[in-house]
Amino acid sequence: MGTKKLTRGAPWSDRLFDVIVYTVIIFATLITLYPFLNVLAISLNDSIDSVRGGITIYPRQFTLKNYETIFAFSGLVTGLKISILRTIIGTLLGLMSASMLAYTLSRVDFQGRKFVSTFLALTMYVSGGLIPFYILIRDLNMMGTFAVYVLPGLVSAFNVFVIRSFIDGIPYALQESAKLDGANDLTIYWRVILPLTKPALATIALFLAVGQWNSWIDTYLYNGSQEHLTTLQFELMKVIQSTTTNVDSFRGKNMTAVMAQVSPESVKMAITIVVTVPILIVYPFLQGYFVKGMTLGAVKS
Amino acid sequence: MKAVTVTQTNRKLPQRGRFWSTAIRNRYLYMMSLPFVVWVFVFSYLPLWGWTMAFQKYKPGKSFFEQKWVGFDYFKQLFQDDMFYQALRNTLAMSGMGLIAGFTVPIIFAILLNEVRVQTLKRFVQTISYLPHFVSWVVAAGIISKMLSTDNGIVNDLLMGFHIIKEPIQFMGEGKLFWGIVTASDVWKETGWNAIIFLAAIAGIGPELYEAAKVDGASRWRQVWHITLPGIRTTIIILLIISIGHLISIGWEKQFLLGNNLVRDYSQTLDLYSLNYGLGMGRYSFGTAINMFNSLISVLLLFTANGIFKKITKESIF
Question: Where do transmembrane segments lie in this chain (chain B) (predicted)?
């Protein structure tokens, strides 16, 4: 189909193609990266100097005062503690439940397989909604408890199916031979399946940990007035909401005192960095895993 | 193979006994799954039972049997409320825009990134592109309102610098801009992440197809159009069906964080409406009616999308 004509036209249009590709890619990288660098620069810049504006990606008058100020605020310290705690506990519990369920679903000789699988899959499409869930949490007396952070979301159908499709890829002969050696299903799960599913588990652990770390809605809905159960994201949310809108009902007394020392803008930026840094630290290590996990999950679900 | 071993040993037992003996053999599997099944029942299915509240004049503290049944009263109230239609409009508008942008942009990004021939650059860009997916919406909303702010926000600074506008635009205070801001924020946050699947699908296309096209003298535009796009067609359709199912359940997190009183007419989604005018005011039954409407439409959309695509493209998720 007109081969000659196309060959002659190709170099010009291919060069244009390359120009477009590299322009778009570089632009996309810039708009992704710049905001983070900008926030970092402002958080490390003298608060009064920042008000003058013009900070781009490096601090003009370097200082750590903004960070010192926010860590003097008790809500932030409690928030940090609770956030770390819920991330660890929530991730471990979530991994356990997802891997156990995934293992049982991968066993074709398991009677309940079809039922459990459908029962789980339905939860991905139908949800009761905000208020019925709220009422349930209240009826279970889980308001104002730490448990509300880790227990309701314990089982995630998506995670189960990701791990299951990974287990399906492990040769069944390994389980058979373990069985011949006298291992029961529990031992097989623990000794054979868990070690072999490490890449999938790492992916799910990342999803769970990020989800736990980033969550604030549960704090807002169920523990909004419990100062000892506050989370980092919730504290940041209060700060951000209280300065973008002048009318606010959220602002804590302590925070107002802190705000008097450095500008709200700098406080916001410093907390943003504190909240984001842990994610940035773990993320390069797990990158290889989650790309695999994402594609696996998509194929199955 | 595994199934065979089970049935062979049980062949002589009667039907009932066979069930129980298999159950006993499966005991550890039951131990590992039943507790979680109960869990899922409590936290995912009991809220569905909570929908009964929409048909009662629900009073906290009373038992289920003491509640007064009111039939469809709350739905009538809901359908007569102007704010409901506004919330429905906002929900559909933002999810529709999100669906279109959240779908096309990652596909384009994946295709373009795949065309980058410098491997180190490709890997670097991809790593950077996932980054915003992992930060919370709280952080994202903070960053976005900072970038769009009228004092020293980069967007206004650039627009002013290039003399495109004379006065800084009040991005966060202008209702008409809100849908666009939410959509753009979503694109900013999720494009890199959503592109992973498409990149993986593109990687699965056989290189011999491109070789053949090159021999035929196809330009790179034509290679993208005739090889890459058809190659990821199935992935696109499956993901599209799933997204349509989630179309109306966009939640309220972004809208809550990016919105404020100035833009409420455009930011209030159905969920936010149920939060503000249901939960916030103690009108549990009314709020439940909103949630129930939301969930049902969502399921309906999923089935419709699945049915339509099954007919047209023979692809479906169930």
Answer: 28-48, 92-112, 231-252, 284-309
